[in-house]
Write a structure and sequence with these properties.
By secondary structure, the protein is an alpha/beta fold. The protein has 2 domains: 139 residues, Glycerate kinase, domain 1 (Rossmann fold), CATH 3.40.50; 222 residues, Glycerate kinase, domain 2 (Alpha-Beta Complex), CATH 3.90.1510. A 6-stranded mixed β-sheet has the order 3-4-5-6-9-10, with helices on both faces. A hairpin with a 5-residue loop joins strand 4 and strand 5. Helix 7 runs parallel beside helix 8.
Amino acid sequence: MKIIVAPDSFKGSLSAKDAATAITKGFSEIFPDADIVQLPIADGGEGTTETLVAATAGQLNSSMVAGPLDDTVNAYWGLLGNSETAVVEVASACGLDMLDFNERNPMLASSYGLGEIVLAALDQGALHFIVGLGGSACNDGGAGMLQALGVRLLDAEGDELNKGGGSLNALVCIDTSTLDARLQNVHFEIACDVDNPLIGEQGASAVFGPQKGADAKMVAELDANLRHYANIIQKTTGKDVASVLGTGAGGGLGAAFLAFLNADLKSGIDIVLDVLHFEGHLENADLVITGEGRIDSQSLHGKAPIGIAKRAQKHQCPVIVIAGSIEGDVRLIQEQGIDSVFSVVSEHVSLSDALAEPFKNLELTSRKVAQGWLQGLNN
């Protein structure tokens, strides 16, 4: 029997690698002779860099760059084993978690540091980038990143705009003539963790602005600024990025990548599974086990278990999900091609108990799931 164990991280308790090890230990007790293949995964969010670097025997790097509020931070990024593909998480340069709650201000927060990471990777010979947009503190439409890469964003006086989403209303001209010439030969794949457009009720400002520190007045101003920004982008490039799905990801970074760097906006989990050659591993597989910290309504929108289930369906391979906890109607998840969903948190294990010993409890849950699977095979 061939079993693929491919969980995402259980955020706040277990890395994807540790989760895969715990699940494998539980299943190997019941299926000691099984060929169990561990493939820790990520969906473009937290852990994507480490997952892909480990899977390809690459290397982790760090660079001192501008943080979200212009302080200096030590941001990590990865170079995959082919020495040509860089993996970058926006959160490592301008992450929301870098700021205390009272520091959060999307009017001022900038994506400049992300551009500096791109430059550092170019210096190391990167020709292909995988960029995860989750967890950003900014709402500047990628303006800061573009400035770091050499684009000039000018006001009516011909002066460079200040950093942050609050300055975009003053934008008059975008000068791309000084964009780093190396970018002409580079391909960007953008791992979007959401499919929101740039502006409007479902746009970057309205949906994500409040968690980044914006009140209602700021949300309206930021949305108007991004609308103005999109208009200038269209005049400059001929590209209408305002309503394209995914352009609102990362506080509008998706729009900048699409308009100026000819990027492909893709599902994060699909990018990761392609790098891991997941389809090849599915050949002759009898079962896939995946999981993440919590299964809820957001799991339906491009999260790891759904992406894995879609691939497994092509090979008629059953999929089991083991989650830390489950919220909402699990049938909606099962309708996406998942055969069974199990939770570590149960009537016998409280959330606090599960978090106190996450590895042990995931292993025990996995063993029970394996026992149930064996019973089903024997019936």
